[in-house]
């Protein structure tokens, strides 16, 4: 990772910089409505930022979720963004690893992501067919639904992921 990069919990004052970060990182996707809604979910979302010279150059969010009919706490990773000029420097990796390490102490048993298997596989995420996403995925996205187990009890989890309102938009799931 680049020297001079700090990973820390997001602060309310970082929101202005995130409003610039996401359109730069994802010029073909409008993730700002999701991001804004997630930032309002203070009790359900853990956010971390990467900074360089005190400027925000990366962000990751983990939403606390559940499995319908189960008591275990699980999380949904996303979104994750790194400023284009700072990509391929290990910042995304540091955000994911730091976030996963933090989640172990929150009692979360498993983390889910809908993302590139080649990227998230580096962290130990594997395809998951036991826990269904909140909406049916297009066939070509099925391998993108992945999870990583944080505690041994998670290997038994089956059912459907229950998500808070920001994630209850079918378009986020390809529907």
The gist of it:
The chain has 175 residues and is an alpha+beta fold.
Query: What is the alpha-carbon Rg in Å?
Result: 15 Å
Number of helices: 4
Task: Estimate percent helicity.
Answer: 10-25%
Q: Runs with pLDDT <50, length 5+?
A: none
Mean pLDDT: 93
Strand content: 25-35%
Order of helices and strands: EHHEEEHEHEEEE
The largest β sheet comes out as: 9 strands, mixed
Termini separation comes to 36 Å
Question: Structural class, from helix and strand content?
Answer: alpha+beta
What's the total count of β strands? Answer: 9
Shape, principal axes of CA atoms: globular
Question: How does this model look, in words?
Answer:
The chain is built from four helices and nine strands. With 175 residues, the protein is an alpha+beta fold. Helix 1 packs antiparallel against helix 2 (32-39). The mean pLDDT is 93.
SSE layout and pairing:
Blueprint: E1 5-9, H1 15-25, H2 32-39, E2 45-52, E3 55-67, E4 73-82, H3 91-104, E5 110-114, H4 117-120, E6 126-127, E7 131-132, E8 145-149, E9 159-162
Parallel strand pairs: 4-5, 7-9
Antiparallel strand pairs: 1-2, 2-3, 3-4, 3-9, 5-8, 6-8
Helix pairs in contact: 1-2
Name a few traits of the molecule.
175 residues; alpha+beta
């Amino acid at each position: 990772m680049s020297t001079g990069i700090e990973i820390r919990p997001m602060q309310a004052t970082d929101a202005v910089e995130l409003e610039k970060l996401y359109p730069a990182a994802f010029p073909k996707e409008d993730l700002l409505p999701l991001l804004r809604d997630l930032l309002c979910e203070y009790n359900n979302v853990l956010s971390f930022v990467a900074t360089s010279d005190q400027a925000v150059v990366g962000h990751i969010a983990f939403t606390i979720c559940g499995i319908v009919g189960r008591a275990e706490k699980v999380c949904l990773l996303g979104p994750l963004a790194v400023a284009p000029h700072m990509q391929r420097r290990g910042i995304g990796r540091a955000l994911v690893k730091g976030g996963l390490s933090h989640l172990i102490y929150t009692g979360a048993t498993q983390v889910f992501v809908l993302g590139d298997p080649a990227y998230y596989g580096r962290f130990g995420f594997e395809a998951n067919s036991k826990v269904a996403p909140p909406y049916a995925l297009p066939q070509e996205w099925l391998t993108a639904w992945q999870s990583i187990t944080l505690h041994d009890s998670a290997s038994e989890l089956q059912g459907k992921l229950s998500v808070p309102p920001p994630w209850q938009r079918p378009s986020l799931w390809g529907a």
